[in-house]
Write a structure and sequence with these properties.
Length: about 350
Amino acid sequence: MNPFSITMIMKNEEKYIDKFFLAIEKIFDGYQYEVVINDTGSNDNSVEIAIKHGAKVIHSEWKDDFSFSRNLAVNEASYDTIIVLDCDEFVTGFNPEKVFPASPDMIGRLRIRNFFVGSDGDDSYTTYLPRIYDRRYSRFEGAIHEQIIPMNKALPKYYDADLSVDHFGYYGKPEELAKKTEKYERILLSSLKDNPQDPYTLFQLGQNHNMMRDPEGAIKYYRMGMSMNPDVSLEYVRMMITSLGNNLIRIGRPEEAAELNIWSEKLNRDADFLCMLGLAYLRTGKYMESMQKFLSALAAGDSKTDGASTYIPLYNMGIINEILGNKDGALSLYRQCGDYKPALEKIRELI
């Protein structure tokens, strides 16, 4: 396997940086690689910890532009093959035979599990983000939620790399998240001013309001993004539709969430979307339609949100069986939910 450079940007990450290095040193033991960090003004022990682990650290001024800072780090790398990570991301799995591309103009997507504190406690969802590329063919563009773009401006050619990461950037104290979301909001609104019809920026604004625990704001930006008629085959657009529905359900407007059924034909294998629709129909008393969507979610396979293709549909199908007076059927479904706490509580109530 060819040598590679791990590049990242950093500011005051002493909370995570040591654990970050311990993870990559374990996973990449025996392989030739380096870590190049662009520090944008740390005043804690982040730089000292990184240097202790053998990283190459450069320093630059923060300019409210993630791509600018990432590209500076990449320019200082010794190798052309780049893996981009953040300090709050910990590598958990790696298959050297399936990580790097067959062709250097391809861009690899990592499997990233994002942890956060939801309304019912700790939760997570999974995304696949472009993070592996050859710097001779591609570079970062975009001030925030930056994207890897081919230098020849051709459409990106993606592949799914067999490299998994746990991300804890959305998992923290409210005051820590507030600082992060305020910075993101400022940069995103500046980007939107330059390109007011960009659905991806509108999606990211919706995501930022999700992190702020502001469903009304998230709904506003998701609706604006969808009004631009983006390509539903794109992963972020599918996430935008599903997140719009989940936020509508969250604030007691499931009837509007159920209207998103218009996308069912194009999203008929998307477990997260189908599970959202199942919840919308359940909250509006349409139990048979709800059951159908939950069954489809179970059959869809992998989901981004933990449980959306397993215990969440099973649990809600149990609820429907209870409502319809089928106690035995409800118990059977709850028992298939594993250690899902709401299901365990239901079992205790019914036996």
